[in-house]
Specification:
alpha/beta; Rossmann fold; 8-stranded mixed β-sheet; 20 helices
């Protein structure tokens, strides 16, 4: 299809309404939504799950399935109404003029076809390009997305690539026909923060190179700040505020935008002096939306008899560039008023050592030919000489990329795996060789886990109350069913869920509510140590704040030791007392949160910190994008595990980094790092994150 020239906006969405028609009737998913994307402009679309972001994107793609229908308004692409186009015209348009990149790269790749074929198909189908020319184009675009050894990548199958490489191939595929509009739907959610940083830089660079306009869907405001020129904040099917990044971030004019920012742990947030402020109440389901303002029931500025009367329209903010807000009280609210600090809970004093890990090793033996067995045996060193202690009432964060050994450590602590070497003692009792089925009830109940995905950890056919009572029975708490029921209701109170939820089934709960049930179960046996494995990463920003503060509150009351496994350094900085950074099975840095977040850094910690998206325009960040992927634990590099990606390696003489694993060495205070860099180089390190003076 020949591309048509047009010098107006690439995308104009005007008063768009989309509904899904089900047996239960019409469910409005998007109402009165308008936005404009100019040539070369990147527009961010943010909001909680279910707010309609992806529905807008699917509306632009005209791919709403059999139940979805545009019931009002228009979507114009380069001045032409997409709703008026024939199926043939739309087929030519998709992939040629408009391309979409999805959250999960493997959903877009054919596992049975080599990468080269999948990339070459695009120009061959859309432009009738000859095979040889299509291959050269594929080679060029794989170079553009900065993948090493493009010829080898092209001859690979998707499963032979890492998640980050797969996502780069999907981006390459989308760019093969040089589209005018690229829609990215949460393209980095499934990726590590270091890989995400590379993808973000790549998307920005390619947008400039190809002059592509972008619609970037995300729930991560820091990512939107890093990638977009403008943004649109959505809530319950409506746009509530839209404008340039600077206007919306620094001069927000809607209570929901303000509430979103209050629930994000920005640099400087303090869990004791100024806890995060979660948005009260719950996101309304489409058939339960209130009259008037959708955000009304959760809004601090709600006015009965005014905010709940009529539908509220978007109004322009005078003096700003295309800055609009859907709020009746814009002129009455003091937008510059400082958020009232929460109750100062005071710093909790840590107690005695509860958990001690000394030289822990966990190796797995796998066959070289894993599918059919046979062949030589290979050893995967998942954990290599880990040593640390954790105290009563302390939060110790364990951070690192996928494959660094965080979850393996959690499994050994829980007794789901036994150690290959070293010692783990819980209250001076050695547990490293005792699998969970051989542990006594007291040991099992004293170390519990909160999992990443609340959807997978609850039994769908048991009520919430029965699932908590089952945990109480296992932990031998309560002598009678009556006593256990009383304790179950107290646990629901503890995690701030209504007692009526005891009779609900998991499917009737939101993600945040399910995670609270998971926390209630973990604390059912008065756990001393709780291992929280990415407990908020599957939740919306506003729900994250509530669950994080809930964990803190329960910890204060129960004097629990919290091992918080995460890749989100913003939340780690906010809630942890100490941080342990892992890379390829090794602890590479450890210290108090303040020490780890201030120079000198281990080179890997420095790269991790620079990769974190921060939703604050006053923050300046040093940009360090790690080249390459984390090596395989089955075939680790010689010497320092990080040397293949380290930007400081040339400052160490005699190729020492490639020959010897560095020893763990003590710096000032409690900080320890595993690095060959001389002290003079460490002393020269500058802060990665700087907050501009107000």
């Amino acid at each position: 299809m020949a591309k048509w020239d047009y010098d107006g906006p690439i995308l104009e969405i005007d008063k768009l309404s989309i509904s899904f028609f089900t047996r239960a009737g019409e469910i409005p998913a998007v109402m009165d939504f308008s936005t404009t994307v100019l040539p070369g402009e990147a527009m961010g679309l943010v909001g909680e799950s279910g707010c309609g972001k992806s529905t807008v994107a699917l509306g632009v793609m005209q791919d709403l399935g059999v139940n979805g229908k545009i019931v009002g308004g228009t979507i114009k692409f380069k001045g032409r109404d997409l709703n008026q186009m024939s199926q043939e015209e739309l087929r030519d348009l998709r992939g040629s003029e408009i391309a979409m990149i999805y959250q999960e790269p493997m959903a877009s790749l054919n596992p049975a076809m080599k990468v080269a074929q999948q990339l070459m198909e695009v120009p061959m189908i859309h432009q009738g390009t000859p095979k040889e020319e299509a291959y050269n184009m594929a080679l060029q675009v794989v170079e553009d997305v900065k993948l090493p050894d493009p010829a080898r990548i092209l001859s690979s199958y998707p499963h032979q690539l890492s998640g980050g490489q797969q996502q780069r191939i999907v981006i390459a595929m989308a760019l093969m026909s040089k589209p005018s509009l690229l829609i990215l739907d949460e393209p980095t959610t499934a990726l590590d923060v270091t890989v995400e940083a590379g993808i973000v830089d790549l998307v920005k660079e390619l947008g400039v190179k190809y002059g592509t306009s972008m619609l970037f869907i995300s729930h991560n405001l820091g990512l939107i700040l890093d990638t977009c020129d403008r943004l649109c904040v959505m809530y319950s099917g409506e746009a509530v505020e839209t404008g340039s990044i600077a206007d919306v971030f620094d001069k927000m004019q809607h209570p929901y935008t303000k509430a979103l920012f209050r629930s994000i742990p920005l640099p400087g947030a303090d869990k004791n002096a100024s806890p995060l402020v979660a948005i009260p109440g719950n996101f309304p389901l489409p058939h339960e939306r209130p009259s008037g303002c959708n955000f009304g029931p959760r809004c601090d500025f709600y006015e009965e008899g005014r905010c709940n009367l009529d539908d509220i329209k978007m109004v322009p903010i005078p003096g700003d560039d295309r800055h609009d807000s859907r709020c009746l009280r814009i002129d009455e609210i003091d937008w510059d008023a400082k958020v009232e600090a929460g109750d100062d809970s005071g710093k909790v004093e840590t107690g005695d050592v509860v958990l001690k890990v000394d030289n822990l090793k966990k190796y797995y033996e796998v066959a070289a030919n894993a599918i059919f067995g046979g062949g030589e045996k290979r050893v995967v060193k998942a954990n290599e000489t880990l040593s640390f202690t954790a105290h009563e009432s302390e939060t110790l964060a364990i951070v690192g990329e996928s494959g660094c050994g965080k979850s393996t450590l959690a499994k050994v602590l829980m007794g789901l795996e036994t150690a290959t070497g070293g010692h783990v003692s819980l209250n001076n009792l050695s547990v490293e060789q005792t699998p969970i089925e051989d542990r006594d009830t007291k040991t099992v109940s004293s170390i519990q886990m909160v999992f990443q995905n609340p959807f997978d950890t609850l039994n769908p056919s048991m009520t919430v109350g029965n699932q908590i009572i089952r945990a109480l029975e296992i932990f031998k708490i309560g002598n009678t069913p009556k006593e256990r029921e009383k304790r179950m209701l107290e646990l629901l109170d503890l995690v701030k869920l209504p007692r009526a939820f005891a009779t609900r089934m998991p499917r009737q709960l939101s993600g945040g509510q399910k995670q609270r049930v998971g926390i209630a179960r973990a604390f059912a046996g008065d756990a001393q140590v709780v291992v929280a494995d990415e407990p908020v990463s599957a939740l919306d920003v506003s729900v994250q704040a509530a669950v994080t503060d809930l964990l803190m509150e329960i910890q204060r009351e129960n004097k629990t030791t919290l091992l918080f496994i995460s890749h989100d350094l913003s939340i780690v900085r906010y809630l942890s007392d100490r941080v342990m950074v892992m890379y390829l099975g090794h602890v590479v840095e450890m210290g108090s949160t303040e020490e780890v977040f201030s120079p000198p850094y281990h080179p890997y910690t420095e790269a991790l910190l620079s990769a974190v998206p921060i939703a604050d325009t006053s923050v300046e960040k040093k940009r360090i994008v790690l080249e390459g992927d984390i090596p395989s634990a089955m075939n680790p590099p010689p010497g320092c595990p990080f040397q293949t990606r380290c930007g400081h390696k040339e400052n160490v003489p005699n190729n020492l980094c490639e020959q010897e694993i560095p020893p763990m060495r003590d710096l000032a205070g409690t900080q320890q790092i595993k690095c060959h860099l001389a002290q003079e180089w460490l002393d020269k390190m500058e802060p990665v994150i700087k907050i501009a003076a107000e």
